[in-house]
Amino acid sequence: MTMKFLDIQDTVLLVIDMQPGFYPPGRRDVDRSALNVVFENAAWVVEVARGLSIPVVVAEEDPEKNGPTHHAIVESLPASSKIYPKTSFGVAGDPRIMEALDSLDRSTTVLVGTETDICVCHSALGLQEAGKRVAVVHDCVYSPKAAHDYGLQRMQAAGVELMSAKQLLYDWLPTLGQIREFRKERPQLSYPTHFSL
């Protein structure tokens, strides 16, 4: 089945557990450089969503223990965004978050977050089962080591769309005119330096 491009009028961005406290200094399995790139990419995607008036919903797992969402992501959020504590690994198991998503009346949910193999994967599969079109931004999600790939493989096998942050931008702005206008109006949103162009 051929999938159409993502429509900015029908999309919501969901940020899942982008909390640095998930990975305390004692965790020796964490690639800190790769994790920081994911946080940077996700903050860029959130800022692009804000620039395009795409609503953003944020979920935090056990914030009392894991702390708040990464500061760069919080600083990029649209003013209307709300942060919800998440009590289930997948957001579909959390009625408050599902109510927030459903109230936006948009059929497509784009996911960024941690961890790829558990909370992002559970959320993607649950939202898909609830009838949503689901896309996961693969360079904006993280799990340590092989767990990241396991999560991507499971989601892809289930029919979840995987795309890069760059691909997401071009789905949201699929014409040369739209891209040029967006960059002219928001020159600060140049690509992060590690994007391959």
UniProtKB/TrEMBL annotation:
Record-linked Gene3D superfamilies: Isochorismatase-like
Signal peptide from the UniProt entry: none
Superkingdom, natural source: Bacteria
Domain Isochorismatase-like, chain residue ranges per copy: 11-167
InterPro entries to which the protein is assigned, alphabetical: Isochorismatase-like_dom, Isochorismatase-like_sf, Isochorismatase_domain
Protein name: Isochorismatase family protein
Organism: Saccharopolyspora elongata
